[in-house]
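Listing S7. Sequence submitted for prediction.
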Amino acid sequence: MIEENISLFLGNILVVSGSFLLLIFLIKKFAWKNIQGIFEKRAQKISDDIDEAENLRDRAEMLTKEREKQLVNSRQEASTIIQNAKDSASLSRQNMLKEAEEEVMRKKEQAKQDIEQSKLDALKNVKGDVTEISMQLVSKILDQELNQEGHQNLINSFVEKLGDGNVK
Protein backbone atom coordinates (compact mmCIF):
# COMPACT_ATOMS: atom_id res chain seq x y z
CA MET A 1 0.00 0.00 0.00
CA ILE A 2 2.71 2.35 0.70
CA GLU A 3 4.40 1.36 -2.47
CA GLU A 4 1.22 1.79 -4.29
CA ASN A 5 0.72 5.22 -2.74
CA ILE A 6 4.25 6.17 -3.56
CA SER A 7 3.84 4.99 -7.06
CA LEU A 8 0.55 6.86 -7.35
CA PHE A 9 2.16 9.92 -5.82
CA LEU A 10 5.10 9.77 -8.25
CA GLY A 11 2.72 9.22 -11.15
CA ASN A 12 0.72 12.27 -10.11
CA ILE A 13 3.89 14.32 -9.81
CA LEU A 14 4.97 13.27 -13.28
CA VAL A 15 1.58 14.05 -14.80
CA VAL A 16 1.33 17.42 -13.04
CA SER A 17 4.94 18.30 -13.93
CA GLY A 18 4.42 17.27 -17.52
CA SER A 19 1.17 19.25 -17.70
CA PHE A 20 2.90 22.27 -16.17
CA LEU A 21 5.79 22.05 -18.63
CA LEU A 22 3.36 21.63 -21.51
CA LEU A 23 1.40 24.63 -20.28
CA ILE A 24 4.58 26.75 -20.05
CA PHE A 25 5.61 25.60 -23.53
CA LEU A 26 2.18 26.46 -24.97
CA ILE A 27 2.13 29.84 -23.21
CA LYS A 28 5.61 30.62 -24.48
CA LYS A 29 4.77 29.49 -27.99
CA PHE A 30 1.37 31.17 -28.38
CA ALA A 31 0.70 33.74 -25.62
CA TRP A 32 4.07 34.89 -24.28
CA LYS A 33 4.52 37.66 -26.88
CA ASN A 34 1.03 38.98 -26.20
CA ILE A 35 1.54 38.83 -22.43
CA GLN A 36 4.94 40.47 -22.74
CA GLY A 37 3.39 43.18 -25.00
CA ILE A 38 0.66 43.81 -22.40
CA PHE A 39 3.31 44.12 -19.66
CA GLU A 40 5.38 46.49 -21.80
CA LYS A 41 2.29 48.58 -22.64
CA ARG A 42 1.35 48.71 -18.97
CA ALA A 43 4.90 49.68 -17.96
CA GLN A 44 4.94 52.35 -20.68
CA LYS A 45 1.54 53.70 -19.55
CA ILE A 46 2.73 53.87 -15.94
CA SER A 47 5.93 55.64 -17.07
CA ASP A 48 3.92 58.08 -19.21
CA ASP A 49 1.51 58.74 -16.34
CA ILE A 50 4.44 59.47 -13.99
CA ASP A 51 6.02 61.81 -16.57
CA GLU A 52 2.70 63.57 -17.12
CA ALA A 53 2.18 63.94 -13.37
CA GLU A 54 5.68 65.44 -13.03
CA ASN A 55 4.98 67.82 -15.92
CA LEU A 56 1.67 68.86 -14.37
CA ARG A 57 3.34 69.38 -11.00
CA ASP A 58 6.09 71.49 -12.60
CA ARG A 59 3.49 73.49 -14.51
CA ALA A 60 1.46 73.99 -11.32
CA GLU A 61 4.59 75.22 -9.50
CA MET A 62 5.37 77.55 -12.39
CA LEU A 63 1.80 78.91 -12.39
CA THR A 64 1.95 79.35 -8.61
CA LYS A 65 5.18 81.33 -8.88
CA GLU A 66 3.75 83.40 -11.73
CA ARG A 67 0.61 84.18 -9.74
CA GLU A 68 2.68 85.11 -6.70
CA LYS A 69 4.73 87.43 -8.91
CA GLN A 70 1.52 88.93 -10.33
CA LEU A 71 0.19 89.38 -6.80
CA VAL A 72 3.37 91.19 -5.77
CA ASN A 73 3.15 93.36 -8.90
CA SER A 74 -0.51 94.07 -8.19
CA ARG A 75 0.31 95.09 -4.64
CA GLN A 76 3.11 97.35 -5.86
CA GLU A 77 0.81 98.86 -8.49
CA ALA A 78 -1.91 99.42 -5.90
CA SER A 79 0.64 101.02 -3.59
CA THR A 80 1.81 103.27 -6.44
CA ILE A 81 -1.76 104.24 -7.28
CA ILE A 82 -2.50 105.06 -3.65
CA GLN A 83 0.71 107.11 -3.35
CA ASN A 84 -0.12 108.97 -6.58
CA ALA A 85 -3.62 109.69 -5.27
CA LYS A 86 -2.17 110.98 -1.98
CA ASP A 87 0.35 113.15 -3.84
CA SER A 88 -2.36 114.47 -6.14
CA ALA A 89 -4.64 115.23 -3.19
CA SER A 90 -1.79 117.00 -1.38
CA LEU A 91 -0.96 119.07 -4.46
CA SER A 92 -4.64 119.88 -4.97
CA ARG A 93 -4.91 120.93 -1.32
CA GLN A 94 -1.85 123.15 -1.64
CA ASN A 95 -3.24 124.72 -4.81
CA MET A 96 -6.59 125.34 -3.15
CA LEU A 97 -4.90 126.94 -0.13
CA LYS A 98 -2.74 129.11 -2.39
CA GLU A 99 -5.79 130.20 -4.41
CA ALA A 100 -7.68 130.96 -1.20
CA GLU A 101 -4.77 133.02 0.11
CA GLU A 102 -4.55 134.90 -3.20
CA GLU A 103 -8.31 135.54 -3.09
CA VAL A 104 -8.01 136.86 0.47
CA MET A 105 -5.15 139.14 -0.59
CA ARG A 106 -7.18 140.43 -3.57
CA LYS A 107 -10.17 141.07 -1.35
CA LYS A 108 -7.97 142.88 1.19
CA GLU A 109 -6.47 145.01 -1.56
CA GLN A 110 -9.93 145.73 -2.97
CA ALA A 111 -11.16 146.61 0.51
CA LYS A 112 -8.20 148.98 0.98
CA GLN A 113 -8.95 150.60 -2.36
CA ASP A 114 -12.64 150.86 -1.47
CA ILE A 115 -11.74 152.41 1.89
CA GLU A 116 -9.36 154.88 0.22
CA GLN A 117 -11.99 155.76 -2.36
CA SER A 118 -14.59 156.18 0.39
CA LYS A 119 -12.18 158.49 2.24
CA LEU A 120 -11.63 160.50 -0.91
CA ASP A 121 -15.36 160.65 -1.60
CA ALA A 122 -16.08 161.62 2.00
CA LEU A 123 -13.38 164.28 1.91
CA LYS A 124 -14.75 165.59 -1.37
CA ASN A 125 -18.26 165.68 0.11
CA VAL A 126 -16.98 167.33 3.25
CA LYS A 127 -15.09 169.89 1.16
CA GLY A 128 -18.27 170.57 -0.81
CA ASP A 129 -20.28 170.91 2.39
CA VAL A 130 -17.61 173.04 4.01
CA THR A 131 -17.44 175.17 0.90
CA GLU A 132 -21.15 175.73 0.96
CA ILE A 133 -21.22 176.44 4.67
CA SER A 134 -18.18 178.68 4.43
CA MET A 135 -19.79 180.59 1.58
CA GLN A 136 -22.84 181.20 3.66
CA LEU A 137 -20.66 182.10 6.61
CA VAL A 138 -18.45 184.43 4.62
CA SER A 139 -21.49 186.10 3.07
CA LYS A 140 -22.96 186.70 6.45
CA ILE A 141 -19.68 187.83 7.99
CA LEU A 142 -18.77 190.22 5.31
CA ASP A 143 -22.30 191.08 4.67
CA GLN A 144 -21.29 192.31 1.41
CA GLU A 145 -21.79 191.00 -1.96
CA LEU A 146 -18.92 189.77 -4.04
CA ASN A 147 -18.95 188.95 -7.63
CA GLN A 148 -18.72 185.35 -8.84
CA GLU A 149 -14.95 185.46 -9.34
CA GLY A 150 -14.37 186.80 -5.86
CA HIS A 151 -16.51 184.04 -4.39
CA GLN A 152 -14.58 181.43 -6.28
CA ASN A 153 -11.19 182.78 -5.16
CA LEU A 154 -12.34 182.96 -1.55
CA ILE A 155 -13.67 179.40 -1.67
CA ASN A 156 -10.57 177.97 -3.32
CA SER A 157 -8.34 179.65 -0.79
CA PHE A 158 -10.43 178.31 2.09
CA VAL A 159 -10.52 174.76 0.62
CA GLU A 160 -6.77 174.74 0.10
CA LYS A 161 -6.24 175.81 3.68
CA LEU A 162 -8.76 173.17 4.78
CA GLY A 163 -6.93 170.46 2.81
CA ASP A 164 -3.62 171.52 4.36
CA GLY A 165 -5.08 171.72 7.82
CA ASN A 166 -4.09 175.38 8.22
CA VAL A 167 -7.55 176.85 8.73
CA LYS A 168 -7.51 179.55 11.47
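Caption to Listing S7: primary sequence and predicted C-alpha coordinates for the chain studied. The two ends are 180 Å apart (CA to CA). Residues 32-164 form one domain.
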